[in-house]
Amino acid sequence: MKAAIPIYDICSLTQRQDDLLISRFAPYLKSHRNLHLAHKHSFYHLVFFTQGDGSQTIDFKQVPVKPFQIYFMIPGQVHNWAFRGKVDGYIINFSVPFFQSFLLKANYLEDFPFFTGIVADSVIDVPAGMQQQITGLFEQLIHETEEPKPLADDMVRSIMLQLFIAIARLGFTSVNKTIPSYNYTLLRSFQKLIEKNYATLRLPKQYAELLYITPNHLNALCNDVLGIPAGEVIRNRIALEAKRLLINNDLTVQEIANQLNFADNSYFTRFFKKQVGSTPEEFRKTTNSHD
């Protein structure tokens, strides 16, 4: 039987105890050729491409790779690359606690639109007018890690926050043109609640109660902003977790159904087929044949 999907932490990539890895991408890729296979990270991960072609798959959604594209991943997402030709740029891996001791608001990063785990929001083309600025920030980060000075970690954190805010402003500009800030905040709160409770809370009315709004209000919000009802947002997150678990052949379909709190295997299979278009066994077979 195929081994379980690998889950990497920063230590396994650097061979030392650390909360941070910053590198130019070409040497990193050369040292970690195995990362073209599907894998998970236990840390935050972002890459800024300055040169490259091919594709990558994040949580089973394939996106093209191109110069001056930046992508962000949160812990637990499934990822693999399929590059063509020479690829270069910059990579940052950092642990969940890396900013927690630095910022009073422990979940500060969750407010950035690209750290939601939604693939469509986390792969961003940097416009020509910002490419020099973003490249300069990455060069500062490389310099700080290659020639560390007093308070180097705090300097790195402050440069990373400049980077995050600069990229976030791109997204906020486009979001704010069409979505009132209150609705955007409410939607993010809904998404965060789903992330914490998808295995136990399945109904929009349960989330509406936690948000102190009516189920109709929640449905209208999701339909207006996302184009799908609240129930579909919840079901999509459950289906995504099922996909992530199914690529681990060490788990049986029954065990996955139990982990996601389905009453029985047949109910889970019906749910999965309706959401994904194939049975769990078919999805597992097809996905594994691509590795």
UniProtKB/TrEMBL annotation:
UniProt-listed SMART domains: HTH_ARAC
Keyword set includes Cytoplasm: no
Domain of life of the organism encoding this protein: Bacteria
Domain HTH araC/xylS-type residue range list: 188-286
Keywords from the UniProt entry: DNA-binding, Transcription, Transcription regulation
A Pfam family per the record: HTH_18
InterPro entries xrefs: AraC-bd (IPR003313), Homeodomain-like_sf (IPR009057), HTH-like (IPR037923), HTH_AraC (IPR018060), Tscrpt_reg_AraC-type_HTH (IPR020449)
PROSITE patterns cross-referenced by the UniProt entry: HTH_ARAC_FAMILY_2 (PS01124)
UniProt protein name: Helix-turn-helix transcriptional regulator
